[in-house]
Design goal:
The protein is α/β, with parallel strands linked by helices. The protein has ten helices and twelve strands. It is globular.
Length: about 350
Amino acid sequence: MELPLPPHFDPARADRVFRVPYGERAAEARAWARRQGLRPAHDDARRIGLLLVDVQNTFCLPDFELYVSGRSGRGAVEDSGRIAAFVYRHLGAITRISATLDTHSALQIFHPVFWVDANGEPPLPFTLVTVADVQKGVWRVNPRLAQALAPRVGFDMDAYVRHYAARLAGGGKYPLTIWPYHAMLGGIGHALVGVVEEALFFHAVARDAPTRFEVKGNHPLTEHYSVLRPEVTEDHEGRVLVPENRALVDVLLELDAIVVAGQAKSHCVAWTLEDLLARIRERDPSLARKVYLLEDCASAVVVPGVIDYTDTAAAAYRRFAEAGMHVVRSTDPLETWPGLA
């Protein structure tokens, strides 16, 4: 049963930074739970999980570093409002919420300072660093950083970046993209966007259900779009960079339904789903029918005149649907979703 939206919810604040008044919201959530007859989440007979990918200021607010505009220009802002509304309407149905946090520092392989050209200048944001670029020395590791970021004594950073670029190309991944500095740990961009943070806090208190936070992306030598594993898992010597997040796969697949939304549809959402589908196929391909993609709660990366991943994201969602996942809208009643009637 869908619930009314609580009085404090204002979708017009989806494009703003604001402080959640936790004490006030906690009292309201407890009162709301009593008024709506909400039971603790651990009593749910049907367990529905919501996986929110990188719903952070850095991606969701127009004035921040990597705002996901979509083609409309309002993509992530409108997505955030719909995500929050979905949580409130389905407080009594959502058992568990997991939220990923893209987490970075300045000196990482996808930030400008990591690379220099023949003149010692860094690449501009959105530069694509290809295998050929690395092999020819068009871009090379900033020599001031090589030792600072080496994971051990004697580590050959030049050999590593050649290996890294080749692994991306050979694994069907996007070429290395130089992104603006974003999702900086300790900075305001790293935080969940306020309208969604408020909804998650409200759900946690109203349903006695702690939000599960998943940190990703803080290893300096690999991109990490998917929350389930980095883009490159091993270095050139075969040593593991970041282990796969098998624990989250287990948490998700023990649920009766997994609802997925967040940013960006073309990158972190798509690769998370790609990796989840791979793990599902290892266990039982029919488990894909547990997964529901909120198509109106995720947008693609679009930088007008530079890059547009809208069609790439749409193609990915078609592949996921062909594999058995369901593409739905946040405004559709749950009872109309395939398998949830």
